């Protein structure tokens, strides 16, 4: 935990403009540690969000499925977070029913830790046969205002995400061409930013091009602090599958194999004035089974993640 506290302190400094930085005191190591513990290490809540993710129809299926996470995250800015910028390379593989794999950014407020307190939006790519009825790679969004108890859903399965007219891509769309682990990359460029005036979370995406506005999560979907800002931002991979039939995360390759592993790059966090701050150093990480699925340290706003190469990975 000592390392987590140090990097948390470094990010805290990064997110403050110089004047405020000089006049503000750092959170104590203990405060930073508690926050990270509550926001990032509370797998109970994170997994609940993903249970629904992997088996949308019945919660009980989670007993048979194991869900693995490998991600970086941050939850220490005193004024909260107002957006995320990053580039994910996109992969595909054949999965069966009960298996799922996703790369995502979670912009969240986990409240007091109770299930109903979880509010978040999730954006990324996924392969999820239980949801789509195919094993293609899809662009996806997801949101909740109460830990998926009575609000929120994938894509546009319920009212929530409001697509932009004429947008090049919509939640749930197939991403037809994907990266090859050792070859050409297909990039999903993301920019999620809170409109400082309306309070809507604006979602910009671009496949192999600069992100363009494709829709929004209106402020009115959310109550409490999350209507105004996020407490944490997490980014990385998820894989879910029965124990006997594991699924790849990222490209399927562990981050030690930087030529073949999936990456998230150009990572920037947005402050209350709408300014983007490149992440220059490492951030805390969570790996629920590091021997199978892992993240590399963040260097120059980029890290590698994934693992459990599972044939046949798309060549
Ligand atoms: C995580 O969430 C659970 C479920 O609501 C809660 O009981 C627990 O106290 C939380 N843990 C932390 C470390 O916040
Ligand atoms: C931001 O919100 C203001 C006020 O509602 C609105 O006029 C403006 O068009 C919004 N910007 C975008 C990009 O939606």
UniProtKB/TrEMBL annotation:
Under the heading Pfam families, the entry gives: Neprosin
- Name of the protein in its database record: Neprosin PEP catalytic domain-containing protein
- Whether Signal counts among this entry's keywords is yes
What PROSITE patterns does the annotation carry?
Answer: NEPROSIN_PEP_CD (PS52045)
Occurrences of domain Neprosin PEP catalytic (ranges): 60-312
Signal peptide as annotated in the record: 1-22
Q: Which UniProt keywords apply?
A: Signal
Q: Which InterPro entries match?
A: Glutamic_endopeptidase, Neprosin
């Amino acid at each position: 935990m000592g390392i987590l506290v140090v990097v948390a302190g470094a990010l805290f400094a990064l997110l403050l403009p110089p004047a405020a930085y000089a006049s503000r005191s750092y959170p104590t190591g203990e405060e930073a540690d508690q926050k990270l513990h509550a926001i990032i290490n509370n797998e109970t809540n994170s997994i609940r969000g993903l249970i629904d993710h992997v088996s949308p129809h019945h919660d009980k299926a989670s007993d048979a499925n194991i869900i693995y996470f490998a991600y970086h995250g941050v939850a220490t800015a005193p004024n909260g977070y107002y957006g995320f910028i990053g580039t994910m390379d996109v992969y595909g593989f054949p999965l069966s029913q009960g298996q799922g794999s996703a790369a995502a950014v979670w912009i969240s407020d986990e409240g007091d830790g109770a299930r109903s307190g979880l509010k978040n939006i999730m954006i990324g790519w996924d392969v999820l046969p239980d949801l789509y009825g195919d094993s293609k790679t899809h662009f996806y969004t997801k949101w909740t205002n109460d830990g998926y108890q009575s609000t929120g859903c994938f894509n546009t399965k319920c009212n929530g995400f409001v697509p932009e007219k004429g947008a090049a891509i919509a939640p749930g769309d197939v991403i037809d061409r994907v990266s090859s682990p050792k070859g050409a990359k297909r990039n999903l460029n993301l920019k999620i930013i809170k409109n400082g005036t309306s309070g809507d979370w604006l979602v910009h995406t671009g496949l192999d091009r600069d992100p363009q506005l494709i829709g929004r999560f209106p402020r009115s979907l959310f109550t409490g602090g999350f209507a105004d800002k996020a407490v944490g931002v997490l980014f990385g991979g998820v894989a879910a599958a029965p124990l006997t039939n594991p699924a790849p995360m990222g490209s399927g390759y562990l981050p030690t194999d930087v030529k073949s592993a999936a990456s998230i790059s150009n990572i920037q966090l947005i402050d209350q004035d709408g300014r983007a701050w490149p992440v220059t150093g490492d951030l805390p990480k969570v790996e629920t089974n590091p021997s199978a699925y892992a993240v590399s340290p963040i260097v120059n706003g980029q890290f590698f993640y994934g693992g459990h190469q599972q044939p046949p990975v798309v060549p």
